[in-house]
Amino acid sequence: MSDDKPALASVHGAHSIDFCGHAEGDPLEDMVKEYIARGFSWFGITEHTPPVSDEFTSDEERALGLDVAAQYERFDRYMTTCRALQKKYADAVDLYVGFECESYTGAFAAAKQHREKYRPDYIVGSVHHVHDIMIDGPPEIYAQAAQKSGSIEALYCQYFDLQLDMIETLHPAVVGHFDLIRLRDPGDYKMRLKNPEILRHIRRNLERIRELDLILDFNLAALDKGADEPYVSAPILNIALELGIALVPGDDSHGVATVGRHFATGARILKERGFDTNWRRPVT
Ligand SMILES: [Zn+2]
Ligand SMILES: [Zn+2]
């Protein structure tokens, strides 16, 4: 193997059926073994946090008959299981134990409590809701969020405002899928990202990310969802490069089949752009 070949790594992923209702069906330990078999030098397990109330229980968890208390119990088991796996496979891989937090009403306080209680190695800060409405689900739900904002442009701006709140409140080591808001945009998101007001919000958040020295998740799941580029998209990548922000591939895996997805593509894009492919780790 040549020296300049980037090491295999993932800063965001390993959602498993043991602990996540919308995962693909594989137990966490099988996924850990897959990372090892594929030769990863390190990766993070960053499961979703339990909902703060029944309102935020997802359809999958509801179908499993899990109420909030049961999901808290499952999250507790998640943390214990991760630490056991970390120990069990310590000789084979550097496995980091984290979680992916939310940004709906009440989620920041919950994330702080989880952090206090479980002392994860790091957390991924994500925004999946604006006005407490899911923005990465069905298009008609996205439309509801946009309607509440008044326009799609305003929805983007409010998404980034919420993201900044999350960054300021939680200082997550990793900011997850920075421009997820583009996923369900019914128009051309690449045009949308040229909107000066949206760009101003993006730059503002990136500057803060730089000041706090956080990592941006180069989230490769987008490539499985019909996009031709990961989160973050090209114009955002340019600003991140200019500011000197660290980008690290995240496969956002939800099963064995998505472990390491599109890593080569992600690493190639970052290398071609001039990013450091000696990936920063979320834990120092
Ligand atoms: Zn998920
Ligand atoms: Zn996410």
Characterise the protein shown here.
- It is a single chain.
- By secondary structure, the chain is of the alpha/beta class.
- The protein has a single domain (9-273), classed as Metal-dependent hydrolases (TIM Barrel, Alpha-Beta Barrel).
- It has helices spanning 28-37, 59-63, 68-88, 107-118, 139-149, 152-170, 189-192, 196-212, 234-243, 263-273; strands at residues 9-10, 42-48, 94-101, 122-125, 129-130, 133-134, 174-175, 215-219, 246-250.
- A seven-stranded parallel beta sheet has the order 1-2-3-4-7-8-9.
- The site of one zinc ion has 5 residues, from loops.
Give a short overview.
Helix content is 42%, strand content 13%. It is of the alpha/beta class.
Order of helices and strands: EHEHHEHEEEHHEHHEHEH
- Uncertain runs: none
CATH class type: Alpha Beta
**If helices are DSSP runs of H or I spanning 4 or more residues, what is the number of helices?**
10
| Named CATH architecture | Alpha-Beta Barrel
Q: Gap between N and C termini, in Å? A: 26 Å
What number of structural domains do the residues give?
1
Specify the CATH homologous superfamily.
Metal-dependent hydrolases
Percent helix among the residues? 40-55%
> How many β-strands, per DSSP?
9
Ligand roster: zinc ion
